[in-house]
Specification:
The structure holds 2 protein chains of 2 kinds. In chain A, about 70% of the residues lie in helices and about 5% in strands. Chain A contains 14 helices and 6 strands. A two-stranded antiparallel ribbon of chain A has the order 1-2. In chain A, helix 2 packs antiparallel against helix 3 and helix 3 packs antiparallel against helix 4. By secondary structure, chain B is mainly α. Chain B has a two-stranded antiparallel ribbon with strand order 1-2. In chain B, helix 1 crosses helix 7. The chains are: A mainly alpha, B mainly alpha. Chains A and B meet through helix 2, helix 3, strand 2 and helix 14 of A and helix 3, helix 4, helix 5 and helix 11 of B.
Chain lengths: ~450, ~325
């Protein structure tokens, strides 16, 4: 197999792996910081030791996850040069800056203050120690901004000129205010809240059921986690909706592919299911809701949406002969899975919140028993979401400027990439198992005991 | 503006030098861990000396790579594709090390803990060696053509010179790590053991360094640059002085001198490279330089502003971190965490 295809697989595998852990880091860092803020500022003295124990409890889960996020992330930084040297050459003038800024402003911050936080409980004042975890949360969420600035340029190039055979930066401000970034970044931040919230919910549910002594403590984190997750899922939906509307001009081919809309229509229907025939450029079968797609895009049941076939003709006219259509089947189903999973997560957050705040938890305890099994949902949603983002951009690696096929490193062989791809996949898998084992063992054994005094 | 690319050559030198100085002792401590620590408690204390700081130190490498990408994208592209399998190996090692620090303490069974300690050691020794291989390859020259593409294979990266270079970095970092431990450990017995390991690794390092020095003189053009040659001599002087100080029990002086030696060798290497960043063994015209491999003046100026603002800030809070954990590590610290 050739180096290009294998490199694409390798990048997909390593990116998806990285993004299994990143949303937890984004969301759980903030949640842990909130827990510690409760510890520092609570006016109920009987809750103080519990809040501290909860902070350390969720903090430890955060730390295990953070380690996986960091190591899978270093691979990504090296990856652009290792497998995609011609992309790096073409894009480096623009792409390198956000990456360097990510390290300078965000990685240094999160790594340094996490080290202080981990070992500094007895060395700093309560407030100073709490500030450390807030800085970690800030750093992690800031790093997402920079990498998404870089990715957004790939999706929707701005602030550049093509000179000397490469893309050169002409406007840094345009780069960081790329409208694409607003959608990607806000959507990612809320996905972090939703994922982190679900982890809190699943862990709290398990502890509530299995750890009698800690029950009251985890009742509170169920409440907090439900609210947190609800904010996350509603935010994900809102920002996703906003970003999809932007895609009308930002990347209409991606948008119509997500919908498998082959012909330009006004108004355009929304297909719930479809049997997609990419070769023929049509759906052999579909169940649609009339005008719904236009409604989603225009906030009114009327508005033209360009079809894939017309967009393909336009692209061929602009860029020369070639197939400018991405994997429509993959995008279509990824989108539905993502939205379905997200909707289900919102419902779960709402349900658990309702049960907890209205004191019905004990009566409907089976919900809590079932909850941890649904934890894969956010990871599925996050992964197919990234498939939409990156798969929807094909055949371009930088839309309109460089094709993926032109971007791979010329000196690496298929054999070398086989080796590294299998190597990364196997090591990541083994480490994920080890990390999960360590986390589950920790969750099972750690007692977060409620002190006397507070009436349930 | 011609000067910005020179400035960025200097900044990248600073970033890599900082990285070698800081992760140098992390790698050294990690590499010594399974040998120096005879009990679980001892190994816990050794890990604890770098526990709060190793991750922040590793970011120096990530920043150096990012800065290389931003300022000299052609170098980043050619270098990382050239060193493909070597970088893969380094990544595997760093991945294992990073996860190992976090997972080691999560179970009580000794086999779990020893396994992850082994990963820390692997993840410290392998990168040390590979950085030496990389650095010597860069100064010796690699077959790079006029399109800035590497024409060799992974095996071409391993020559007598580069293997000696790898062993030099490895043994120097082990000494540096041992010297660091004499500053950070509160257990007197362990401190003396650190000194014993420092003397062993230091002797090996001096031997490797002499070989490396001779090979650098004969196989590279580093000595064509008087400042680079001087810095390399200074490296040797500092390191031998560090060794002697260690033998005499002057631990603090020894660590300062090993630090200076690492700073000096890094500066020597970059000075010898200048104005190139990657030397082509095919033709000097094909070498990647600060002129033909750099970003636009616009990008460089944006990055310069960012660096001038952020680097001092980073130095301040990283410095604060070291100050917070300035006390020597004893058994009591293990119970606290």
């Amino acid at each position: 197999m050739e180096a290009l295809l294998l490199s694409r697989w390798q990048f997909a595998i390593t990116t998806v792996y990285h993004f299994l852990f990143v949303p937890i880091t984004l969301g759980l860092s903030i949640f842990t910081a909130l827990l510690e803020t409760c510890y520092v500022r609570t006016r109920h003295p009987e809750w103080k030791p519990v809040c501290k124990k909860l902070t350390k409890f969720f903090g430890t889960i955060f730390l295990i996850n953070f380690a996986m996020g960091v190591v899978t992330g270093i691979v990504q930084e090296f990856h652009f040069g290792m497998n995609w040297s011609e992309y790096s050459r073409f894009m480096g003038d623009i792409f390198g800056a956000p990456l360097a800024l990510e390290a300078l402003t965000a990685f240094f911050l999160e790594s340094t203050f996490l080290g202080i936080w981990m070992f500094g409980w007895d060395k700093l004042s309560e407030k100073a120690h709490c500030a450390c975890i807030w800085l970690v949360a800030f750093g992690s969420n800031l790093s997402a901004f920079w990498i998404l600035v870089a990715n957004s340029f790939m999706q929707h190039p701005v602030g550049y000129a093509v000179n000397n055979g490469r893309a050169e930066m002409t406007d840094f401000f345009a780069l960081v205010t790329n409208p694409y970034v607003i959608g990607e970044y806000s959507h990612t931040l809320f996905a972090g809240l939703a994922t982190g919230g679900f982890v809190v919910l699943a862990v709290s549910a398990w502890k509530f059921v299995h750890d009698d002594g800690s029950r009251e403590a985890f009742r509170q984190t169920l409440k907090a986690g439900a609210v947190y997750m609800l904010i996350g899922t509603l935010g994900v939906m809102g920002t996703g909706h906003m970003h999809a509307q932007y895609l009308r001009e930002g990347n209409p081919m991606k948008l119509s592919s997500m919908e498998a809309l082959w012909e330009t229509e006004n108004p355009a229907p929304f297909a719930i299911v479809a049997d997609i025939n990419q070769d023929a450029g049509r759906n052999d079968f579909e169940i649609t809701i009339p005008a719904l797609f236009s409604f989603m895009l225009y906030n009114a049941p009327e508005g033209e949406v360009k079809g894939i076939n017309d967009l393909q003709k336009e692209a061929a006219a602009k860029y020369g002969p070639g197939d400018y259509r991405p994997d429509v089947t993959g995008l279509f189903w990824s989108f539905r899975i993502m939205v379905g999973a997200g909707g289900l997560m919102a419902a779960i957050a709402g349900l658990v919140g309702f049960l907890t705040f209205t004191g019905r938890l004990e009566k409907f305890g089976f919900v809590l028993k079932f909850l941890p099994w649904l934890l894969p949902l956010p990871f599925v949603a996050n992964s197919v979401g990234w498939y939409i983002a990156e798969g929807g951009r094909q055949p371009w690696i930088v839309v309109g400027l460089q094709k993926t096929a032109e971007a791979v490193s010329p000196n690496i062989t298929g054999g070398e990439v086989w080796l590294t791809m299998i190597g990364f996949t196997v090591i990541y898998l083994l480490l994920a198992i080890a990390a999960l084992y360590a986390a589950l063992r920790f969750i099972r054994r750690t007692k977060v005991i409620q002190t006397e005094g507070r009436n349930g | 503006m011609m000067e910005l690319n020179v400035l960025w050559f200097v900044l990248i030198t600073v970033l890599f030098t900082g990285f070698f100085f800081l992760e140098g002792f992390d790698y050294g401590v990690g590499g010594l861990l399974p040998f120096m620590g005879r009990t679980d408690e001892e190994r816990g204390m050794i890990i604890r000396t770098i526990g709060p700081v190793w991750d922040g130190n590793e970011v120096w490498m990530i920043t150096a790579g990012g800065a290389l990408f931003a300022a000299f994208p052609h170098v980043y592209s050619t270098m990382f594709a050239t060193f493909y399998l070597a970088l893969f190996l380094m990544l595997v090692a760093l991945i294992l090390r990073g996860v190992a620090f976090e997972l080691r303490g999560k179970a009580d069974c000794l086999c779990w803990r020893r396994f992850w300690e082994g990963c820390i050691a692997f993840g410290s020794l392998v990168p040390s060696f590979l950085w030496g291989v990389a650095v010597t390859n860069l100064i010796a020259g690699l077959p790079i053509n006029e399109n800035m593409h590497y024409l060799g294979s992974f095996r071409d990266l391993l020559s007598v010179y580069t293997i000696v270079g790898g062993l030099t970095f490895l043994t120097v970092f082990l000494f540096h790590g041992a010297a660091f431990l004499t500053q950070r450990l509160g257990d007197y017995g362990l401190m003396l053991r650190a000194r014993a390991y420092a003397l062993k690794t230091g002797a090996a390092a001096i031997f490797c360094f002499v070989l490396c020095f001779v090979l650098t003189a004969t196989k590279t053009d580093l000595f064509h640059s008087f400042p680079a040659a001087l810095l390399l001599v200074l490296t040797g002087v500092c390191f031998i002085a560090a060794y002697l100080a260690m033998a005499q029990g002057k631990f603090k002086v020894s660590f300062i001198l090993s630090s200076l030696a690492i700073v000096a060798v890094s500066c020597s290497f970059f000075t010898g490279l200048f104005p190139r960043l990657m030397v082509s063994s095919i033709s000097p015209a094909f070498s990647l330089t600060i002129d033909n491999a750099c970003s636009t003046p616009y990008t460089l100026s944006i990055m310069t502003v960012a660096a001038l603002v952020m680097v001092p800030v980073v130095l301040i809070y990283q410095g604060w971190c070291y100050w917070v954990f300035r006390h020597r590590v004893t058994g009591k610290d293990l119970k606290a965490h």
